[in-house]
Amino acid sequence: MSDLPQRPGASSPRSLSGLLPFIRPYRAMVMLAGLFLVLAALSTLAFPVALKILVDEGLVATEPGARVMQLRGHFLALFGVAAALGAFSAARFYVVSWLGERITADLRNAVYAHVLRQSPEFFESTRTGEVLSRLTTDTTLVQTVVGSSLSMGLRNVVMGIGALAALIVTNPWVMTQVLGILVLVVLPSLYFGRRVRKLSRASQDRVADSSAIAAEVLGEIPVVQSYVQETREAERFGRSTEEAFQTARKRTRVRALLVAFMITATFGALLWGLYQGTQAVLAGRISPGHLGQTVVFVIIFVGAVAVLSEVYGDLLRAAGATERLMELLAARSPVADPAQPRTLPPVQGGSAVAFEAVGFHYPSRPGQAALQDFSLAIRPGETVALVGPSGAGKSTVLQLLLRFYDAQSGDVKLDGVPVRELSLAALRGRIGIVPQDSTVFSTSALENIRYGRPEASDAEVMAAAKAAFAHEFIAALPEGYATYLGERGVRLSGGQRQRISIARAMLKNPPLLLLDEATSALDAESERVVQQALEAAMADRTTLVIAHRLATVLKADRIVVMEAGRIVDIGRHDELVARGGLYARLAAMQFELQPAA
């Protein structure tokens, strides 16, 4: 489970108030929907009155001709009521459905945009599959309520209150008894309602667990299949969905008991009132038309109560979904733009970078320092390589420079300005990165490279591809630059994906370039040509390189040797080898294994 902020209290219909900010922009449509809703409800309530007049007046005329004319007029009036009901109901359905679709789309967009702005710390404690579940399953539940259930509920509230008021006016003594019985019905329903609320939230959490498992496994399907773990993963997913089913079954059982109790008790109470009405007709205290009107009002009232019991269950489920979505929107990234961002000075020939006594612990590992008293100044246009064993803190340096995290002590500066005082867009706009695991999106080769600078022309994209030695293999694809590369670039080799990533960074043309094992996925021939391209690109900008393969950093202006989050040595390749120490040991191992390098 995630460590998202939990809202106080159990899920209840009050949780739906979180949707108000998304409803307010469409107040006019809400008022229009309310108008059609009331008109449709009033049309329904007018039907029993028209029926009473039909029975008491249309059937009492003594002359057959007059009786036919009166009946015709009354039936036309009933048809008019039905036509009005149909028109107002259709209008209500359209407006409410429009609201449901619009509000849900806005909510989904807001949640997604908010999640995109979270720092990596958020994803250390929140699984991607759970976020996807909230974006899909939970928003669908909200759409069901806003676009259907809530409208039905309000319509039946209006009809139920109207029918109840009419019954009280026409049969006050009988309805007083019925209302007394209904009060006793409400009390047990509150208990059932609380149970449904808790089980609804638990059910949605179990569905999110299943989604998280599926997202994780499908994202790493080659590993799953290479270790022949398909059966095991299918069983793990099956256990998760079975837990979700069992929780949903409990929720459905309690909700079914609630519906059965509400309908049975309400029918019992109102049948008692109807029995009293038939006795009043037999005693001559009311007319047959009055009884017919009472019967229809009773049917309307009972139907409204039955629908409301169903709608209430939907409201409880949507309340749980809304609560989970509001938790996502309530999550606050510890890395955010300052209140008054500073402006970066113009640069030529690369950016200057400075780390001043930086100390940092990852939030998920507070007891283990990733960087300790780390100080490093990089001059504009300089190429600096970070080397050292795994876990030395090399990638952490890049993450702090990109401000994915904030250091707990010390300062990180770009062109003399602390990164905390810059807007994230301004900071990251000056930095290009080629990560170790190249990312290729499920679109064309052209758009994958253009991701580095969306406004770039096709010619600029192709120039970047040529500089990264990617043009030749892209041109050989079935549709050239328009070729769809598949999800996560499955149609490309590892080296080809890396060259796409390098072309993307070169198209951005930033003054600071970060290379995190940029040639790690390339074969010897590809590494040679891409290294040439990178060397040409590094000539006009500052470059910070992470490398385990020391052959790729022999020409760096400085090599920074790191161990356990500290700098243990700095110098050029020859100097470091001559001094001995960690770098010399690493170089001896690698060049003995790769003498040709």
Description:
The two termini are 47 Å apart. A hairpin with a 2-residue loop joins strand 4 (409-414) and strand 5 (417-418). The protein folds into three domains: 13-330, ABC transporter type 1, transmembrane domain (ABC transporter transmembrane region fold), CATH 1.20.1560; 347-430 and 514-526 and 543-597, Rossmann fold, CATH 3.40.50; 439-509, Rossmann fold (3-Layer(aba) Sandwich), CATH 3.40.50.300. Mean pLDDT is 78; it is low at 5-10 and 593-597. The strands form two sheets. A six-stranded mixed beta sheet has the order 6-7-8-3-9-10, with helices on both faces. The protein has a four-stranded antiparallel beta sheet with strand order 2-1-4-5, covered by helices on one side. The chain is 62% helix and 10% strand. It has 597 residues and is α/β, with parallel strands linked by helices.
Structural descriptors:
disordered C terminus, ABC transporter transmembrane region fold, alpha/beta, 10 strands, elongated, Rossmann fold, single chain, 10% strand, four-stranded antiparallel β-sheet, 3 domains, 597 residues, six-stranded mixed β-sheet
